[in-house]
Design a protein that fits this description.
Largest sheet: 3 strands, antiparallel
Helix content: 40-55%
Strand order of the largest sheet: 1-2-5
Radius of gyration: 18 Å
Order of helices and strands: HEEHEEHEHHHH
Strand content: 15-25%
Structural class: alpha+beta
Length: about 140
């Protein structure tokens, strides 16, 4: 057995990591958690749209990068729970994605998404990952 396999066999690898992120002007930190690759694939797949290319007779699959970033943030945010109906009702929106759009200005949103990416081990920009996934 190799060293890495020995490590995996004899250790409890922590699958989920939690952290708190402070975003101004919110008085309390956001609680974020990491997700597994299986959860990430599910999110990414839910953001893909397949179209039939009549010229090449091939199926083209495109990933909506904005939708992916929103859904990744929703999946990783423990506190607040963007799926909470009462919170959505308070801000007059339906759905977690609409709530995110209502709560944050562009800078706050970008900072929170960047922290989610870092927490999940993305060292490169999410758009680069989406382009790589397309190919």
């Amino acid at each position: 057995m190799g060293k890495l396999q020995d490590f995996l066999m004899n250790s409890d690898v922590q699958a989920e990591v939690q952290t708190e992120v402070s975003i101004k002007p919110f008085p309390f930190p956001f609680v974020l958690k990491s997700i597994t690759e299986a959860e990430n694939k599910e999110i990414r797949k839910s953001c893909q749209k397949a179209t039939f290319n009549k010229r090449t007779h091939q199926k083209d699959v495109e990933t909506d990068a904005d939708l992916y970033a929103n859904r990744l943030l929703i999946a990783c945010c423990v506190e607040p729970n963007f799926k909470d109906a009462a919170l959505q009702k308070k801000f007059g929106v339906l759905g977690a994605e609409a709530l995110i759009d209502k709560l944050f200005n562009p800078g706050q949103y970008a900072e929170l998404v960047q922290r989610v990416q870092q927490l999940n081990g993305f060292e490169t920009d999410i758009n680069e990952l989406v382009e790589e996934a397309k190919n």
